[in-house]
Design a protein that fits this description.
The chain has 313 residues and is of the alpha/beta class. It has helices at residues 6-10, 45-51, 54-58, 70-79, 89-97, 147-158, 173-182, 194-197, 225-230, 232-251, 253-264, 268-272, 289-297, and strands at 22-24, 33-38, 62-67, 84-87, 102-107, 109-111, 118-123, 138-141, 167-170, 187-191, 202-206, 216-217, 220-224, 278-279. The chain folds into two domains: 6-112 and 215-310, D-Maltodextrin-Binding Protein, domain 2; 118-211, Periplasmic binding protein-like II (D-Maltodextrin-Binding Protein, domain 2), CATH 3.40.190. Residues 8-18 have low confidence and may be disordered.
């Protein structure tokens, strides 16, 4: 995660992002809500909501713009190119700490021990068995200064490893399997479909998210406070559609896999066999606070931040 000061984020503006928005059909005459998402499982709720008609039922018009990652979504929301985004709280809180007027208004993907979606892996022939074995080694994470990176550090620390002797290295998810095979890194926090793609060459070491809390938000929905104030009813309608879509996806895994496969370009049958996220049905500050406390512990935030203070009124 790149730490951006407010002036840097706001300077991006609408012109900085080439957003390929696609419209959700609605009877509403109001301007559509511009939504930023990434094309992976925790971000799929708007696609479920559009394709299954939940946005139309809620009476909200939506344009969905796929972006590369949570950092680009955050830049778009802060710069005014996007109205609503979804992302992890470490990034959102860091922007707020730097003066960007954001607020959270709905829960997104939620971590549950029975559905791990990020797993710390090592090469199949590695002799690494625990956190201590990673001292003097390099561990790959997709983004530094992020929830996954902080969770990995917490697992290492709880396992007795000296963090000063472990190097975290930023590496795209798709490159982690080959890096483990080459021995470039000793461990990697991998996600799907790459865990499945490399199942013959890697083995599971741990689930670092289990060290954080029994359950917490992997992502939350947020917007600029001014937009939420001026569009309070629209935000409520949007949240209701997102919760409806998430609830449907939670109980229709095969059907939701078909929709997701269409956007992420994976085989639906294959996708249906992979661990996938569970989606929240409300916004609970108790599921936000562990992430904020973890970010503070590893100096990804400079000062303590209460979840209640970043939730929209």
């Amino acid at each position: 995660m790149i730490r951006l000061k407010r002036r840097q984020v706001l300077a991006l503006g609408t012109s900085a992002l080439a957003l390929g928005f696609t419209r959700a059909v609605s009877a509403q005459t109001a301007a559509p809500v511009r939504v930023g998402v990434a094309l992976n499982d925790p971000y799929m709720e708007p696609f479920y909501a559009r394709d299954r008609g939940f946005f139309s039922t809620a009476g909200v018009s939506v344009d969905i713009g796929p972006l590369a990652n949570g950092g680009r979504i955050l830049q778009g929301v802060a710069g005014g190119a996007i109205d609503v985004g979804v992302g992890e709280l470490t990034q959102i809180a860091n922007a707020i700490e730097h003066g960007v007027p954001l607020a959270v208004f709905a829960g997104g993907a939620i971590q549950r021990p029975e559905d791990p979606t990020l797993i710390l892996c090592v090469a199949k022939d590695a002799r690494i068995r625990n956190a201590k074995d990673l001292e003097g080694q390099t561990v790959a994470v997709s983004t530094l200064n992020s929830l996954p990176a902080a969770a990995t550090m917490l697992w290492l620390e709880k396992g007795g490893a000296d963090l000063s002797k472990v190097k975290l290295f930023e590496l795209p998810l798709g490159e982690m399997g080959p890096a483990l095979a080459r021995g470039t890194v000793a461990a990697a926090l991998m996600g799907e479909p790459f865990i499945t793609d490399n199942k013959d060459t890697v083995k599971h070491l741990s689930v670092p998210f289990d060290s954080v809390a029994p359950s917490f938000y992997i992502g939350c929905w947020y917007a600029q406070r001014d937009w939420l104030t001026k569009n309070a009813d629209t935000a409520k309608r949007f949240a209701s559609a997102i919760y409806a879509a998430g609830g449907w996806a939670n109980t229709h895994r095969s059907d939701s896999a078909v929709i997701e496969a269409n956007y992420v370009k994976l085989d639906a049958a294959r996708l249906a066999t992979m661990p996938r996220n569970t989606f929240a049905q409300g916004l609970d500050p108790k599921l936000m606070q562990p992430v904020l406390d973890l970010a503070l512990r590893y100096k990804m935030l400079a000062t303590p931040l209460l979840a209640a203070n970043i939730i929209a009124a």
